[in-house]
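Protein: Fucosyltransferase
Species: Elysia chlorotica
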Amino acid sequence: MASKRREKSAGCICNRREKMKLLVLRMMFVMLACGTLFICIMVSLSIKNKNSSAPGLELTPMKRSGFSLQPEPTKRNGKFVGSNGQHLFYKAKARDWFVEPEIIKRYCRATNLTQCSPVFRTEQQKQADRASRGRPVRVTIYRPFTPDPTEPNFSECNYNNCVYAGHEVTPESDAIFIYGIKLNEDAKVPAVRLPHQVFIFSGYEPVGSGYSTALSNSNSKWRTFFNATMTYRLNSDVFKPYGVLDFQPKAEKDLPDYRAIARRKTRTAIWIVSNCRTQSMRMQYVKEMQKYMTIDIFGKCGEKCEVVDERCVADFNSTYRFYLAFESSFNTDYITEKFFKLFIDDTHIVPVVRGSLDYKRELPEKSLINAADFKSPKDLALFLKSLEVDEVEYSKYLEVKDRYRAIDTDRWCGLCEYMHKLWTSPHVFTHGRQVDLQKELLHGHVLSPSVIG
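Structure follows.
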């Protein structure tokens, strides 16, 4: 009897083993089938994404950036062309593009782009956008202290399905624009906040210029209050610098004699400045440069004048060879408005910059001189001294710089485009994201002078 029981037990064990083998084989087959199906789906999506783009979008290998166009364009048959042979065009509207976000990310990552080519939308496409949502985006400008007298105009925007809804936050408000300046704990939080509403933090000045506790206080009620940013940072949801450079080369017949302009100049460098004690220690840097070259200083930190800007010296454009556009603080991507003022029509003076922007990547070569390219203030000063007596080389800087014009970027058009993306893209949450202001604008983004030089 015991022998029979052992045989029966052994038979059961064998049956269980057979069943387990069959179960494992079935599971492996299912996993293989699922894997094959997944690969087929991904290939299909890849082909679809490769062939799909917004109307008019050309994803070319040309490197675009937030402030200008790189590389420096070449001349062919008397005209400037890019690496793909297309005539170059870049304005503030270069950010008015819209493609499925994942396609843009993959393409830009593969080609090392910071920005992709523009889409110029027809009026029919704009009307289709409005019809798809059913109503325009209602934009509210909220200021806890005083209402903003500015009434935004969206009619000329590439994406113009937005309307101004006043300065009171109501349940009907969709996008709420809030200035970061003077935003502290005394500022009243809007009484209304609904899930569909997007609260946008706006700040064009560098961190430390009056932002108060919104950034300095880790426990501030404003620190994680916002869903989007509109700042000078290149990675902001709405990019808003003081300007961008528009490639506008003159016709051959209109080109001035740059060597003659260089010969007429009599002074080396000028610096117009109002803030003498700064995080960047720019005054100490300039004082060191002055040991080796002449720098005329105007404003509160030098020779007094009624207005601390270019009007302080009436003939500075025709007299000086270099203008110091040094930043007061080293904030990632920030560039002063003084730089862009040097790119208005017929301003023939070479900017010398010192800041934390990646100038080589973001701005045209030989349109400026970057202090970061030199080991010390002495080296920079000696280079400027040598360049001022080299008429041929100095005139090349003037010629390159004269191909570009500074233009303003429209914050309201950028805001309306951003809201369009949120409302129409299935890949983006309707209410935006949660912004940590300290991580996005402060931590790791305010560099010390020793890092810059």
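Remarks: The first strand starts at residue 74 and ends at 76.
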